[in-house]
Every structure is written in C-alpha cells, then in structure tokens.
Amino acid sequence: MQNAVILINVEKGRIRGVAERLADLEGISEVYSTCGRYDLIAIARTRDFESLASLVTERLMSVEGIRDTETLNAMQVHSRHDLDAMFSVGL
Amino acid sequence: MQNAVILINVEKGRIRGVAERLADLEGISEVYSTCGRYDLIAIARTRDFESLASLVTERLMSVEGIRDTETLNAMQVHSRHDLDAMFSVGL
Amino acid sequence: MQNAVILINVEKGRIRGVAERLADLEGISEVYSTCGRYDLIAIARTRDFESLASLVTERLMSVEGIRDTETLNAMQVHSRHDLDAMFSVGL
Amino acid sequence: MQNAVILINVEKGRIRGVAERLADLEGISEVYSTCGRYDLIAIARTRDFESLASLVTERLMSVEGIRDTETLNAMQVHSRHDLDAMFSVGL
Amino acid sequence: MQNAVILINVEKGRIRGVAERLADLEGISEVYSTCGRYDLIAIARTRDFESLASLVTERLMSVEGIRDTETLNAMQVHSRHDLDAMFSVGL
Amino acid sequence: MQNAVILINVEKGRIRGVAERLADLEGISEVYSTCGRYDLIAIARTRDFESLASLVTERLMSVEGIRDTETLNAMQVHSRHDLDAMFSVGL
Amino acid sequence: MQNAVILINVEKGRIRGVAERLADLEGISEVYSTCGRYDLIAIARTRDFESLASLVTERLMSVEGIRDTETLNAMQVHSRHDLDAMFSVGL
Amino acid sequence: MQNAVILINVEKGRIRGVAERLADLEGISEVYSTCGRYDLIAIARTRDFESLASLVTERLMSVEGIRDTETLNAMQVHSRHDLDAMFSVGL
Amino acid sequence: MQNAVILINVEKGRIRGVAERLADLEGISEVYSTCGRYDLIAIARTRDFESLASLVTERLMSVEGIRDTETLNAMQVHSRHDLDAMFSVGL
Amino acid sequence: MQNAVILINVEKGRIRGVAERLADLEGISEVYSTCGRYDLIAIARTRDFESLASLVTERLMSVEGIRDTETLNAMQVHSRHDLDAMFSVGL
C-alpha cells in the first residue's frame, strides 16, 4: 500500500463541501478539517505508486473548490497497526 | 476519538530513530517519513481532547532528536471507514 | 468550554464592519482589531468541540469581507480566572 | 483596559512550564497552549498602555524558556461582554 | 502622544500619489517612500489611542491605491527630542 | 537631511537597554519599541548620505544586544512639517 | 553541455498536460511531476549557455498553463555517468 | 554617482521585452535576466539621489509588464574600477 | 526506476566536497551545484521505492557537511529518452 | 564575459570588512553595501562560466565573516554600455 499526506487549502466557505467530495474519492481514506495553516488534510492509501500518481495529478483536481494542494508521499510507515489489512476493505 | 496530524522535523540523521520512538507512543497510530518540507508526519488518535493535549504538550517532547513540531487538530473527520472501531484495538 | 484563537485578515477597508459582525456570532466572545500581521483576532469560547467545528468551518465564513482565517484551537488553558463561569453568561 | 494578544514560541519541552509561569504574571489573564504555528497564546489585559509596555518589554522576558514573542496590541475591542468589569477582579 | 509606524505597499505606479494623500491625513506626520520590502512607511502621531485606532482602521483605508498596510504601535518612545512639543504644532 | 527607517530585532530581554543605547547615537532621532514583527524601529536623520552609511554599517553595530537590522532608506519625504528645521537642533 | 533544474508550478488541474508539452521542448530532457512544494521539475540540458537562456526566457513561457518558474543553473556537475554522451542523442 | 540594485519580477512571458525597455531608461546602466528568485536585476547609476528617487518611484513603473520591484540603494561602493568615470559616458 | 530530486543546502565552504561525496553514493546519478536558493541539487535514480527510502532517510545523512535536505519524489516522469536504460548501467 | 549578481549576508558588525575583502577578489568587479534584506550585493564578471563556478563555490567562501550567499547568474545582459570592454581592464 502506498500512503501520502495531502495538505489542502480551499476557496472561502467551501471547507465542508470539498471535504465530503474528497472523502468519496477512491484512494482517499480520510479527510480531516484541521486547525492551523491548512484547511484540510487528506490521507491517501492506494494500491501502488501509479494509482497514487493518477489520484494526485488528475482525479484530485476534478474536485471543485480546491485552491492549492501539496502532496507529501510517505517513504516509510511506522505503525503498530496493520494498516494494509485495515484499509484494504475500503480500497 | 480525537485525531490530530503532527508535522515534525528532526535533527540531522535521526529520521528513522525518531519515527520508531514516536510510533511506540500511546496515542500515535502511524508515523510517516515523508518527502517534502517535513521529515515526519504522525497521526494521533486519542480517546479525548485531554489525552491529545497531554500527548502533544508533554509526552511527544520526551522523544530525543525532535527539532520542531506543529500539531494540527482535526475538527471534523470525513471517512467511509469506521476509524473509531478500526483503531480502538490499538488504543 | 472549548477555546480557540482565530487569526483573521479582511478585505481592504472592512476591518470595523467585519469585527462587529463577528462579535455578534454565537460562540465568539471577543474580537480585537490588532496591530501587526493580522487585522483581527477573535476569541471563540464554545460549549464543546462540535460547536467550535461548526462555528469555524461554516458560520464564520458567512461573514462578508473576510479574506483569510487561521484557527488555533486551545489544547489547554491556564488562568487564575474561572473563564467557564465568566463567559457562560453570554454563551 | 488595554488588551493585547501575545504569540509565543518556547524552547523544546517547556510548553506547560512556561504557560504556568506566564499565567501567574500580573496583567496576563489567560494563556492558551494552541495547535498550529505558535506554542502558546497569552491574552494581556492591563490597566493602561504603560502597564502593557512594561509587561511586554520587561516582565514577560523574565520567564525562562521563552524563545520568541510577538505582541499584537488591540486597537479596538468588540464584545457583547463587559470585559472591563469581568476581568477587573483579577487585575 | 501615541506613535505608530505604518508599513505600506501600494498598487503599481501609485507610490507618489498615495504618499501625498497620506501626508495630508490628520494624524500622519511624515510619509517616506523607502527602498526595500515596503513601498511607503508612514509615521502616525495622534493625541491618544482612540484617534490612532480610528486613523488606522478607517481613515487610512479611504486612500485609493493602497494594497496592504501593517501598523506597528509604539509601546515606548526613546528620544533626546521633545517629540510631543515638536509635533503638537501640526496635530 | 537624509532619513532612514531601521527595523531591529534584539536578543531576548534586551529591548529597553538597546533602545536607550540607540537613542543616544548621533544621527538616530527616535527609537520606538513596537508591537508586531520587529522589536524596535529607529528613525535615522543624518546630515547626508555618507553619515547615514557610516551610522548604519558601523556605529549601529557597536551596540550590544542587536540581533538583526534592516535599513530602509527614505528616497522621498512627504510631510506638512519642516522636518529639517525641527530636527536640526539635535543633529 | 549546460544543465539547469527548473522548478515549476502550474495552473490547477494542468499538471499532466504541461508536463507533456514541456517534455517535447528541445533542450528539456526530463520532466518530473513531484510531491512537495513544486508541481513539476524539469531538467534542461542544452548545447550552450545561449540555448539555455533562450529556452528559459522565451520558449518555456509559450507553454500554456504554467503559473510560475524558477530556473537554477548548474554551475558544476558531478556524476559517474557521461551525461554529455548519454543525452547528446536526444539534443 | 548614486547606485542601486533593483530586483524585478515580470508578468509571464515578458522577460525579454521588459529587459529591453528597462535598459533604454536613462539611469539604468545594465539589466540582467537572472536565474533564481528574481526574473530581472537592473543596476541603476544616477547623478544623485533625487534622480534615483524619480527613476524608481515614477519612470520605472511606466514600463508595461513589470509585476513587482524592490529597490536596494547602495550606501557604499567598493570597487577597484572607477565606476564614476566608466559609466559617466552613458549617463 | 524510482526518481527523486533532492534539494540540499550545505555548511559554509563545503559545496564541492559534499557534491563529490554525494555523487559517489549508490543511487545518486548526478549532483548539480546550482545558483539560487539551494546549494546543490541531486538526482536520485533507484531500483525501487525501498531503495530510495533507505538512501534518503539513512545513507544521504552520513555525508558530512550537509545542513538541510528536502526530497521531492517523482510521481511521474515524462521524457523522450529511455532513462531506465540509460542509467541502468550505473545502478 | 559571464556576469552574476551575488546576494550576501554577513556576520554582525562585519559589513565593511567583508565588502573590502570581496572587492579584492579576482572576478568581483563591484561590491555594494545595500539597504534592505541583504547586507551586500556583489557583481561578478568573469571570463567564462568555469571561472564563475570556481569563484562562487570556492574562493568566495574563503572570505571570513560571510554568513549566507545566493548567486544569481545572468543568462542575458541588456545594456547600452559595452560592459565587456569596460571591465576587461580589471579582469
């Protein structure tokens, strides 16, 4: 599984709508509306690197109301949970 | 469950060590070593707000080699997964 | 009580108007027009975390003339005053 | 009453200690440990401008563990609360 | 006397016009067109804090061509000159 | 007369001491301790450009406790006051 | 051979299209869509300095959808590969 | 002779045109299209301070396609060349 | 093949030494000393994602004199060259 | 002739000394102590690209008191002066 953290700022007044649209995208497991310098932070968990690339460079951008994104690929994951098993259900 | 995304930079050459120590902390479910402007991104999932506060203002800082952290509390979570159930095992 | 500090920049020439509108919102206890890098700083004091989230991600943004906001949730409060009692009147 | 919002970053691992020391200072009514780009945000409420100046340029800096502060004076306050009356007790 | 330093950027090609308009405002004693990161720096010297607040949050913004301002209130003044006497003529 | 605005940050806890030392320097007419992103703002008013250069590149730096300075030369001055006459006394 | 690294941000939703157009330009050997603060990073490898200058100041800008570029000329190249030989085929 | 370095960013695709127009302005001796964070860097060499001020606050801005400028006045010049003599021809 | 662009700043006076050491690392195909905001830019071309992760989070940091790195993984590569074939020799 | 603009910040109190040392270096034609965000700006004019690279990556850094440099290579020069002829004397 390939993980990435996506930092997102949205157009004024569209936080909730964009969050809901993003959470419906295949490959996005969670979207947090966060305090601080980013409006939303999405966690991408995709089958492989190619799916991540297509999610980030194409499908993500089809969501209306996004102003700016910055994708931070995970190079390694450290967790006591078996994230692969846990999230495979929804992939 | 209270979630937060924690952006972390570490001292030179200590990425892997800090990541492993953080992943062992109660309340931290995953630690990603990421590309881009942050060295590590940790996801905190705690029982309530008080646990998150104590994790972030005290226990996190006991890990050697951390240079800088910025905690971004989740105000809302959007997900097709039942994150509460999935992560309760490890809490 | 859940507190947050909200850093706000407004459209040119609208400082006073936005400040007055914000101060009328339920959950905002005070709005300061400040010197320095932010135009306004609002203090949110809400019953619980959910009210804060709805204030910040929805109601706040209905005020015309706001250009940019950044919400900084309080994780802990240190005060010799009983803020809960003092502000409960206006909540 | 003269109000100011003070944005504070502290040395690693000293958030709670500095917060408690600041909250004890005359003229500081509340100290929040916040998420996001500042470690602590203190609210100063002083009798007049001179007290604020002495608090910020001298007494504040006697607290060990502070790394950086930025004071944002309130030029105007908008509130449905009578902040002067409420906080005069503790001044 | 209440002093403040106001950092100003203007719309392209309007430095001189904005500077002249600002210098005519009651409460602004001098306007410098400066090298470096700001286009203009104005010095405000007003009778009291209220006059400064109204100058900065309202009258200043009526000048066409201003893009951005940041007001830095003086908390203390150190000078071998009697600035109060010198500038009272023009207040 | 050549004017410049000098933006200054000082070492922790030294705001007042540095301000007093600077105000004593020939060529510095006023020093403000300000709110916001700079600790001190000094106004230099020197006979000519050479005096300003020597003040800024040499004498200023002899004051202990200064951490960082940025000098913004005035290219033009707009004022209803006769600043040359007013400040010539102290030059 | 003259090398340069070109950091590029594009208009929303145009990452792939711009990348393909850039990769077709004579003098651009590779275009990476990257994670982090830039959308695309292109490597320019031109015969000489003049070709690089014309590529960067003119031809590059004819590609629709580019928002911002920053060119970082290579002053020296360190490699165990014979880059001149390898890329001469495609120049 | 009064020197200044002017850092310039231009509208997309207009680097060469703006450079040529600037190089024709009286008082501008050279315009470099540079790599890195600025598009163009111009060197101003004027008879005196007043000419520099009028060049920078008025004539420079008449060139179409400039987006942003920042002028850095030279306070002192160190050179083994007699710049005054060399450039007087073209002034 | 997995590509990444690594932005690097080094300790003062160590540009050439660090560049040579980096160019010797397995997985680094080229190191450019560049103009502008970064001292060095290295191109990593590794067999797979795991090799990239171990290069970036461990081996890179063993080189003395590096101050700061930021790794930008390539998610997609666009090139008329067969980079896989060209660089496989040196992998 | 290869030109570059070098933006330089120096250690506190060393502006003049560093400027004089830099102006003595072969390949540096002028050093300006400037107002604003950089302490010194040097103009490099070297025979060719290799000389510039060795000046910037090695000889420049031998000057004591430099804290930070950023070199901006000129890709094109626009001037009504024959800079090659004028500066060849001193090269």
From TrEMBL, chains A, B, C, D, E, F, G, H, I, J:
Residues 6-75 form the Transcription regulator AsnC/Lrp ligand binding domain. SUPFAM superfamilies: Dimeric alpha+beta barrel (SSF54909). GO terms for biological process: response to amino acid. GO terms for molecular function: sequence-specific DNA binding. Pfam families: AsnC_trans_reg (PF01037). One of its GO terms (cellular component) is cytosol. It comes from the Bacteria. This is Lrp/AsnC family transcriptional regulator. It comes from Salinicola corii.
